[in-house]
Recover the amino acids of this structure.
């Protein structure tokens, strides 16, 4: 019987302790934080301190400005195979002979012809692909094959013109061209 009494007493003490800890949890967390900060400060005090880096006191002396703006303070070495004079537009180009210019023009024309041929072939391929897609759609949808109707241009006769004018008067102007009332 005494054993159960002591177990219940220990259990009550534990509940009281846990309750006290949870009621004072912010205070306990603060004490742990302060202890951690003191520990890290002591650790930092033991580190070797280095002297601060000193900046030079004197400013570097400025070079005197040359009287000639083309004088840059050193001699420019001569370049081998450099162009003799500066071009007007500021861009150096390799000198070309008339033969090389004619060859370039032919190459450019050939390249343009190849590109135009490529574009024509590409549009034809796209047209064929669209026609094939439409044909497969018509077969899958069980539609009648598309028949091309011949283009019928109405003949222009005085009677046809008169009929057109009469229809125009009856039907009136298109809605977009009618005047709107303010």
């Amino acid at each position: 019987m005494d054993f159960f009494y002591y177990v219940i007493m220990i259990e009550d003490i534990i509940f009281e302790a846990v309750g006290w800890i949870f009621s004072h949890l912010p205070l306990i967390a603060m004490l742990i934080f302060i202890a951690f900060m003191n520990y890290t400060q002591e650790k930092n005090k033991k580190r070797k301190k280095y002297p601060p880096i000193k900046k030079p006191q004197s400013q570097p002396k400025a070079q005197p400005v040359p009287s000639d703006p083309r004088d840059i303070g050193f001699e420019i070495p001569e370049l081998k195979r450099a162009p003799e004079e500066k071009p007007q537009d500021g861009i150096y180009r390799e000198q070309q002979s008339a033969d090389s210019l004619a060859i370039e023009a032919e190459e450019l024309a050939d390249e343009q012809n190849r590109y135009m041929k490529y574009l024509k072939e590409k549009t034809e391929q796209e047209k064929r692909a669209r026609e094939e897609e439409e044909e497969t759609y018509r077969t899958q949808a069980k539609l009648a094959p598309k028949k091309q109707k011949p283009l019928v241009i109405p003949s222009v006769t005085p009677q046809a013109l008169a009929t057109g004018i009469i229809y125009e008067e009856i039907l009136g102007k298109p809605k977009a061209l009618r005047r709107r009332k303010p």
Q: What stands out?
A: The two ends are 108 Å apart (CA to CA).
